[in-house]
Amino acid sequence: MAVYTDITEAELRAFLEPYDIGELLSYKGIAEGVENSNFLMHTEKGSFILTLYEKRVDRNDLPFFLGLMEHLAESGLTCPLPVHRRDGIVLGELAGRPAAVITFLEGMWPRRPTPDHCREVGKVAAMLHLSGRGFDRSRKNALSVRAWRPLWNQSAARADEVEPGLSREVEADLERLEENWPDGLPSGVIHADLFPDNVFFLGETLSGVIDFYFACNDLFAYDVAVCLNAWCFERDGAFNMTKGLALLSGYQSVRPVTAAEAEALPMLAHGAALRFFLTRLYDWLNVPDGAMVVKKDPMEYLRYMRFHRNIGSAAEYGLRQSGAESH
Ligand SMILES: Nc1ncnc2c1ncn2[C@@H]1O[C@H](COP(=O)(O)OP(=O)(O)O)[C@@H](O)[C@H]1O
Ligand SMILES: N[C@@H](CCOP(=O)(O)O)C(=O)O
């Protein structure tokens, strides 16, 4: 359960006083998520999410994240919105943490994604990439290729405790990725964490996207690579080409990928797998067992890294190119 910071009712009532959301009727911690503390609140005016931003979120990035949600919503992409206080402010402080009230998004995330879900998420990723173009703020990806080695260095000495030989294997992957990481591909605002638990559906219809707290400016195709990993592998570790095809054709129906992006996709998918392996490994080794958070398995992502190392072309993910190029 991701509640790192608990709050009292009195503190919360005082925090909510400047908002116009009616009287607080109930609140409880949300048993999902990894990064921040989230609470579901019921007030006289409906349901809201209260988020307390924890230590891995840089306070200076919050205007980017909150502004992006407003920008995307204005462009027609369904996502939660930060609630403004009567004085216009969206960001306050609660229990020593930056905190915001966010509108509640109806829907459920798919526990067992189908090809139809994958097609929808491909489309929404592309819509996000196009909509992000008019956003006037930018944020570097703090977890891109240059950040991986410092992150790895914090776990390397203990990696072989998780699996013998892991240290040598990851080191080799890291070198390969650092030497071959593509640049110059189409880029802009990406979500960077578009996992199933961040995409809500009502029935078969995508009802919205949440959790923009890794969003940044980076390669569009890297975001696609993150999605391929998060949506298209089965629980037994096998890549599901039908899901890959659906996700990529959904994406291409909104924004066709360029030939250079297609060529880079295996390297990007390998790097995207390493990025989530590294944060999960760090948490696996460092988050105390008693913490109210469900640690995610780094080995799932090691299996994906092994898979991508042997991919020769994006066609093996299901990419079908028409020859059309876009930017
Ligand atoms: N706007 C929202 N509407 C509905 N539920 C939400 C909303 N934001 C967060 N949640 C719930 O809280 C959980 C954790 O949120 P998330 O933003 O993924 O946290 P974290 O940033 O800690 O990973 C989600 O899986 C969802 O159940
Ligand atoms: N998606 C990441 C962890 C980040 O947590 P989220 O709950 O914000 O998606 C992973 O699976 O490692």
Structure overview:
The chain starts with 8 loop residues before the first helix and ends in an 18-residue tail after the last helix. The protein has 2 domains: 9-103, Phosphorylase Kinase, domain 1, CATH 3.30.200; 115-323, Aminoglycoside 3'-phosphotransferase, Chain: A, domain 2 (Alpha-Beta Complex), CATH 3.90.1200.10. Helix 4 (145-153) runs parallel beside helix 9 (259-286) and helix 7 (220-232) packs across helix 9 (259-286). The protein is 42% helix and 14% strand. With 327 residues, it is α+β, with helices and mostly antiparallel strands. It binds adenosine-5'-diphosphate and the ligand N[C@@H](CCOP(=O)(O)O)C(=O)O. The site of ligand LJ64HWYM has 12 residues, from helix 9.
Query: Remind me, CATH topology of the largest domain?
Result: Aminoglycoside 3'-phosphotransferase, Chain: A, domain 2
- Helical segment tally? 10
Order of helices and strands: HEEEHEEHHHHEEEEHHHH
Q: Can you tell me the CATH class of the largest domain?
A: Alpha Beta
Quaternary organisation of the protein chains: single chain
Q: How many beta strands in the DSSP annotation?
A: 9
Silhouette: globular
Helix share bin:
40-55%
Distance between the termini: 41 Å
Portion in strands: 5-15%
Relevant CATH superfamily of the largest domain: Aminoglycoside phosphotransferase (APH), C-terminal lobe
Please name the CATH architecture of the largest domain: Alpha-Beta Complex
Mean pLDDT: 94
Q: The biggest beta sheet, please?
A: 5 strands, antiparallel
Question: What is the SS-derived class?
Answer: alpha+beta
InterPro entries: Aminoglycoside_PTrfase, Homoserine_kinase_II, Kinase-like_dom_sf, Pseudomonas-type_ThrB
Protein name: Homoserine kinase
Pathway: Amino-acid biosynthesis; L-threonine biosynthesis; L-threonine from L-aspartate: step 4/5
Enzyme class: transferase
